Amino acid sequence: AGVACWRYARKRVVTACAQSISFHTPINMGEVVYSRATIIHVGRSSMEVEVEVEVENVIEGTTRRGASGLFTMVAVDENWHPSPVQPWQPVTEAELEKWREVEKRRTGA
């Protein structure tokens, strides 16, 4: 989550909140772990990020969902105060749906 937000904001970021972290299956020694972080909402200085973890058993040739999480990261300046980030708008229908979910949660609507 942090790297995705740092790449987007090009600023130092901190974790403001881990809304949810779900572990779906054990990850065994020797399995390959892939993680993907996607920014789904951007505020003035905050970015909401969805993280998906996939586990691959290369011997069996199988993959499965390992974990998932939702995090809020905040860009900060050199004094650790919130710092504005560039605006972002969803483009695809899937992005728009996620954006609306976050807006609904934030406004309580």
Task: Summarize the structure in words.
There is one protein chain. Helices cover 21% and strands 46% of the residues. It is an alpha+beta fold. It has a 4-stranded antiparallel β-sheet with strand order 1-4-3-2. The longest helix is centred in the C-terminal third of the chain and has 15 residues, at 93-107. The model has no long low-confidence stretch (mean pLDDT 95).
Structure, briefly:
The chain starts with a helix and ends with a helix. It has helices at residues 2-9, 93-107, and strands spanning 12-23, 32-42, 46-57, 62-76.
Quaternary structure annotation: single chain
Quantity of strands, as a count: 4
Q: What is the mean predicted local confidence, pLDDT?
A: 95
Strand arrangement in the largest pleated sheet: 1-4-3-2
Tally of alpha and pi helices: 2
* Low-pLDDT stretches: none
Shape: globular
Order of helices and strands: HEEEEH
Instruction: Give the count of structural domains.
Output: 1
Supply the helix-strand structural class. Answer: alpha+beta
Question: What is the assigned CATH homologous superfamily?
Answer: Hotdog Thioesterase
Helix amount = 10-25%
Q: What gyration radius follows from the Cα positions, in whole Å? A: 16 Å
Please write the CATH class name: Alpha Beta
What is the correct CATH architecture?
Roll
> Would you give the CATH topology?
Thiol Ester Dehydrase, Chain A
Q: What's the story with the biggest beta sheet?
A: 4 strands, antiparallel
